[in-house]
Design goal:
elongated, Immunoglobulin-like, Methylamine Dehydrogenase, Chain H, 6-stranded mixed sheet, alpha+beta, 16 helices
């Protein structure tokens, strides 16, 4: 069992870790400790005096570092290359500035040893420096010859080895760090690398492996030549090896964890007489553990084979280290321990090797230390107390002391000193548990908030999807158009109102997107982008509330009508993460989905500026008398008319279009339209049908858009309405009653209301005529269906329509015949077009 509880002693704090960096903690010269928080700085901390000795300032974020075997040099890998720092310079600076705080040493380009991009891991084997880099299509392992002290600061390339990526498209954004270690033959005594491997368990990058297991894994040739073997753990899960001294060696795959490799180590649970570890351990990011050791092949085959045992422990794993009998790993929220020798102590060497590994990996022991993101190799005190040097997520360097693991010998009375220490350890453990509970509580609260918001988003999405099939929309938009004048320029603006009639709250992350698209663009405008997009993010829209936004639709003189206004709600997935997901989920920054609301239409009637006849006359008079440019333009136009052979009149040609509606249909439909909004709807019967129709045409919210009145725009009081079209043309709307006598005697006549559009602009006449037909079409959809008794009127109207169509077809054929000049063709086609527009369409 384990006596007492683990104690965490805080040594120093170096600030929060850089999220995109690699945290590191390494023991170096004597009691010096090198700490990197993922930034451009390396902190040199002395464990003996518990203070900061110096700071190394690198030109780029630190990715990995190794200390030379003689502890005189420090090799640092950055994004720009590999730098070599003489630690004696730092010691000299520290002794010189002993009274002024820690020494600072800026590492410039003169310390640059190798120019290499994307170095993931470093390893020093004797005088050979190895780097592992990821390129676009492969992994690159490069061997360099380190310079002697008397030579220049430059490395020569010895050899390079390539290993293709599993899937470049998937692995292109992988940020996990690779693992690089060296494995030695157990009875190697006179190798040049023996100094590095003399203590196989004091260095995490150099492992001494049992001879039998070494031969089974790496081959007989590597074992006979006693060649050091480089072992690589890649982010794609592959374990690769390379014998250094064999001619023609290449990178080969040993195993695959199918998840990023976090740690590779060796355990001495099967230690033999010759020394060396009998088990190789690999740990994956998601908690997969692979134990590799020598197993007996069986009575039939004889000999030994390499056995691979896989188990899973709680993850994700941030870092790990291994001692002679235990594996320590951190999940970020807790530090855990796996015992590797409990079963082997009770079993003989003749039994199967997988039995102890299976029993040992069933349960992990929590050490109640949270936030650990980096670990150094464990050390053991004289009292067999294991000590771990760790770096927390908050940048805290701490020493974790683990109690001695012994078999239970019964209850005994502890001395007072040990009781006090146990109480202190208990209080420290309680503090760690409270800190971890606080972190977990914050994470749970954040996840609950995200789930609540996600539930709201899903409900709103279903609501808008279902309401798209019906006319009733609980979340919708409507518009209000109004002419305004700014800096002596008239423009038509649209106020779009978003109504939330649903029981859900539109919270942060939603954006009202509006796209304005003219349905009729000029050839010049069609070459450019006709549509305009507007985005209006908002923070919160509760049920029953509305949001008003304003946007320009068209300027005075623009005839690109009708205009469709498409409204939609856009939700950004990025809002779920807040500001903490910029580095965790960079691919989600532009991910969003759009939910359509409804489409509004602004036509010529919406953009018509209604004025009284007297106001129109005053406007024309004032403009003609006050603006010299208008006088000159009028004179030129009059002169052109005379030159063309006119009769002296300067009045332009007028164009007409009309539509007829049955009075009974109009009366019934308008009564239904005003039933909910007009409290005096009974007065409709006494009002003139012509005035009522014009008033409805100019005030109805057709297409989800209503008209706003300003200036001298008043209610319609006469059957004649004058106004200015968007293209500044003067138009006149005239409504009158027309009696249609049926051909058969004895039948009553049909009373209709005819609305005629008159203007000198063909575009204005066509646009207003089209807008009136749209409104009457919508009126018919709400009108009650009745059996029509005027079948003969309809038949006669169809007969006249067919006769006109035959006549117009002949005119079109004449216009397109050979011998016609372009001017004559245009006049004939314009006359036919005007006849089509002026032909009254009877709506019954």
């Amino acid at each position: 069992m384990m006596e007492g509880r683990c104690a965490a002693e805080s040594w120093a704090e170096f600030g929060r870790l850089v999220k995109s960096g690699t945290p590191l903690v390494r023991c170096g010269l004597g009691t010096d400790v090198f700490v990197s928080t993922g930034s451009e700085e390396i902190f040199v901390f002395t464990a003996l005096k518990r203070k900061l000795k110096g700071v190394l300032q690198l030109p780029a974020p630190v990715r990995d570092l190794v200390v030379s075997h003689d502890t005189q040099h420090l090799f640092v890998a950055c994004s720009s290359g590999i730098y070599c720092v003489n630690l004696q310079l730092l010691l000299h600076s520290a002794s010189t500035d002993a009274g002024s705080g820690p020494a600072e040493l800026k590492i410039s380009s003169e310390f640059l040893l190798v120019v290499a991009d994307g170095v993931s891991s470093l390893l020093l084997v004797g005088s050979v420096l190895l780097t592992l880099c990821q390129t676009d299509s492969s992994w690159l392992l490069t061997l360099y010859k380190t310079p002697e002290q008397s030579q220049s600061n430059h490395c020569d390339v010895l050899s390079s080895f390539f290993l293709p990526l599993v899937s470049p498209s998937v692995q292109g954004d992988t940020e996990w760090k690779s693992v690089l270690i060296c494995v030695y033959f157990s009875d190697m005594t006179q190798s040049s690398s023996c100094a590095a491997a003399s203590d196989a368990y004091s260095s995490r990058s150099h492992l001494l492996l049992q001879a039998v297991l070494f031969k089974l894994l790496f081959g007989v040739e590597a074992a006979l030549s006693k060649s050091p073997v480089i072992l690589c753990g890649l982010p794609d899960g592959r374990l690769c090896f390379l014998p250094m001294r064999l001619p023609g060696s290449r990178l080969r795959i040993l195993h695959s964890l199918e998840q990023p490799v976090v740690f590779i180590g060796a355990s001495a649970v099967m230690e033999t007489e010759l020394g060396g570890a009998g088990c190789l351990i690999a740990l994956g990011k998601q908690g997969r553990v692979v134990l590799i050791k020598a197993d007996r092949a069986g009575s039939e085959r004889g000999g030994s084979i390499a056995g691979f045992t896989e188990r899973c422990v709680p993850g994700p794993v941030e870092c790990a280290c291994v001692s002679k009998s235990c594996l320590y790993y951190s999940t970020g929220s807790d530090l855990l321990m796996l015992g590797l020798s409990e079963a082997s102590a009770r079993k003989g060497q003749d039994e199967g090797a997988s039995r102890w590994s299976a029993a040992a990996l069933y349960r992990s022991i929590s050490l109640n230390v949270s936030g650990v993101v980096a670990l150094d190799q464990p050390t053991c005190s004289a009292a067999d107390e294991v000590q771990l040097l760790s770096l927390s997520v908050r940048g805290r360097l701490q020493k974790i002391s683990l109690p001695v693991r012994r078999q239970e010998e019964g209850m005994s009375k502890l001395p007072s000193s040990q009781v006090g220490r146990s109480v202190g350890d208990l209080l420290s453990a309680i503090g760690d548990v409270c800190e971890r509970a606080s972190v977990l509580k914050t994470v749970i609260r954040s996840k609950n908030q995200i789930l609540k918001q996600l539930n709201q988003v899903v409900n709103i999405s279903f609501l808008l999807t279902d309401s798209a099939k019906t006319e009733e929309k609980l979340i919708r938009c409507y518009g209000l158009v109004r002419w305004s004048r700014l800096l002596q320029k008239d423009s038509l603006g649209l106020t779009c109102v978003l109504e939330n009639l649903s029981p859900y709250v539109l919270e942060r992350g939603w954006t009202l997107s509006i796209m304005v698209l003219p349905l009729s663009c000029s050839p010049k405008a069609r070459e450019e982008a006709c549509s305009a997009n507007f985005s209006f993010p908002f923070r919160r829209l509760c049920p029953g509330e509305s949001l008003e936004v304003s946007l320009p639709v068209a300027a005075a003189g623009d005839a690109s009508f009708p205009v469709t206004v498409t409204c939609s709600l856009i939700f950004s997935v990025w809002s779920f993460l807040g500001g903490d997901g910029s580095t965790t989920f960079p691919d989600l920054q532009n991910v969003c989905f759009s939910l359509p609301l409804n489409t509004l239409t602004v036509d010529w009637l919406h953009a018509l500026r209604v004025i009284s006849p007297t106001s129109a006359q005053k406007t024309v008079t004032s403009h003609s008398g006050s603006n010299p440019a208008d006088i000159i333009q009028a004179f030129i136009s009059s002169h052109q008319n005379r030159v063309r052979g006119g009769d002296g009149a300067s009045r332009p040609e007028q164009y007409y279009a009309s539509v007829r509606v049955s009075s009974d249909l109009l009366r019934d439909a308008l009564r239904l339209q005003r039933h909910d909004s007009d409290l005096n709807g009974s007065k409709l019967a006494s009002q003139n049908s012509c005035v009522s129709l014009l008033e409805w045409l100019l005030s109805a919210g057709c297409g989800g858009v209503k008209m706003g009145h300003s200036g001298d725009q008043t209610g319609v009081s006469s059957p004649v309405v004058c106004g200015h079209a968007p293209n500044k043309a003067t138009v006149k709307l005239t409504a009158k009653e027309v009696n249609l006598d049926e051909e058969s005697p004895g039948k009553e006549s049909l009373v209709t209301v005819e609305v005629q559009v008159e203007s000198s602009s063909v575009a204005a006449v066509c646009g207003l005529h089209h807008a009136m037909l749209r409104r009457i079409q919508m009126l018919l959809q709400t009108a009650p269906q009745k059996a029509c008794s005027f079948s003969e009127v309809q038949i006669s109207a169809l007969r006249r329509t067919l006769q006109q169509a035959e006549s117009q077809q002949g005119q079109i054929s004449e216009a397109l015949s050979v011998g016609m000049s372009p001017g004559q063709t245009h006049r004939i086609l314009l006359r036919v077009y005007q006849q089509l527009r002026d032909s009254p369409v009877l709506v019954v």
